[in-house]
Amino acid sequence: MLGIIQKLRARLFGNNIIATVLFILLAIAPLFLSDFRTNLLGKFIAFAVLALGIDLIWGYTGILSLGHGVFFGLGAYCMAMYLKLEASSGKLPDFMSWSGQEVLPWFWKPFAYAPVAIVLAILVPVMLALIIGYLTFKNRIRGVYFSILTQALSIIFVVLFVGQQAFTGGTNGITNFKTIFGFPLSSSYTKVSLYYVTLGFLILSFLFCKWIVQSRLGKVLIAIRDGENRARFSGYNPAIYKTFVYCISAGLAGLAGALYVPQVGIISPAEMGIVPSVEMVIWVAIGGRGTLVGAVIGAILVNSTKSLISERFPDVWSYFIGIIFITVVIFMPYGLVGLSKQIKRKIKEWKNIKKHTHTDLTDFKELGCDEYVS
Questions:
Q1: CA 144 to mean position of chain CA atoms
Q2: What is the model's pLDDT at position 323?
Q3: What is the distance between the alpha carbons of residues 16 and 45, in angstroms, rounded to a whole number?
Q4: How far apart are CA 97 and CA 153, in angstroms?
Q5: pLDDT tens-place string over residues 5-39
């Protein structure tokens, strides 16, 4: 039995001891944390699911998206619509009544069913990513131009959701949830259950992404990142692969949004803006892009640090986060996870220099120049 477990762990996690230890610590964390801290950590774990998707397209495929808040927000709104209808007990949601709406809109009705809401929380972002990805990557829009396009997408959706007060809650968003699947959101049992459900989806998402990057598909994605023209000349169509991975990343973002809403209790258009989208990229950069586990660590660590600093220094906490980001970018270009590799590389370079210096001095002595060497 022990041998089977070890083989299974090796197949799923490989030799990534960091990921194994991290998930074990997250699993036992609720035993030592209060309900408030557990709920907060669950929120950060949902962010980690999103960070995995960003790392998949940025770290492994070289696509820098600065509009992933849109996919996250769409998934969150899908789940929020179900929670709001459940809280309303079949009646019209309060913000619709305040806006003069008398009948539940047709596109709200499917969200009265939990399975439909969960599926749409992933499917809606994927369909949007499919449309955007196909149109942009087919026309070979990439680099900074694609990043600017995704920022414009964030602006469009924020304006759209703010303007549709009667359907989306406007600036205030959707809030005042009471239950999920019939269980009260305020109870300690529900909060801990949501935490472990979120952790379970994080582990599954990590294994799924790891399977992708270790497969032949992952090698093609890395080839596109390192030399898209060479990949194209080798017979691969980069547009298809980039669209596919963009859809996978959007689906993970939508899943993260669906896991985020019941633990936070609100979703507003502000979560879909440019600033949150840029922060998502910062998580991956600090943790270490192109490592998967670095994305998880970055999302949890940055948000935990942000929460702790903002509690103690509410007026200047953003400066601390900025300093941390600048420090990592300048001195740790491969992120926190890549720090050990960076140190090993420096030690190896130092040993090579020392070895070559010793060899040169030995050759100098053999020429009869001992007095100059001394």
A1: 20
A2: 82
A3: 19
A4: 30
A5: 455 455 444 447 888 899 999 999 999 988 889 99
CA 215 – CA 116 distance, rounded (Å): 31
d(Cα 335, Cα 290) in Å, to the nearest integer? 10
Phi, psi values for residue 191, rounded to 5°:
-65, -45
Residue 267, helix vs strand vs coil: strand
- Cα distances (angstroms) measured from residue 68 to each of 7, 278, 322, 365: 36, 9, 20, 63
Q: DSSP string covering 8-55, please?
A: HHHHHHTT-HHHHHHHHHHHHGGGTS-HHHHHHHHHHHHHHHHHHHHH
Give the pair of three-digit tokens for residue 292: 């998967």
User: What number of other Cβ atoms are within 10 A of residue 19's Cβ?
Assistant: 23
Per-position DSSP letters for 144-195, written without gaps between them: HHHHHHHHHHHHHHHHHHHH-HHHH-GGG-EE---EETTEETTSHHHHHHHH
Sequence-distant contacts of 191-196: CB under 8 A, at least 24 apart: 191/35, 191/38, 191/39, 191/42, 191/263, 192/30, 192/35, 192/38, 194/39, 194/42, 194/259, 194/262, 194/263, 195/30, 195/38, 195/39, 195/41, 195/42, 195/45, 195/263, 196/27, 196/30
Token couple for 84: 């709001």
**Weakest mean pLDDT among 25-39, 241-255, 347-361:** 347-361
CA atoms within 13 A on the CB side of 117: 24
Taking each continuous run of H as one helix and of E as one strand, the counts in the chain are 17, 4
* Calpha distance 204→211 (Å, rounded): 10
Reported confidence tier of residue 305, pLDDT bands at 50, 70, 90 = confident
> In this structure, what token pair is assigned to residue 19?
């990921």
Beta bridge partners of 266: 175
Confidence category of residue 245, pLDDT binned at 50, 70, 90: very high
Residues constituting the chain: 374
pLDDT digits (tens, 9 = 90+) for 104-163: 888 898 998 999 999 999 999 999 999 999 999 999 898 899 999 999 999 999 999 998
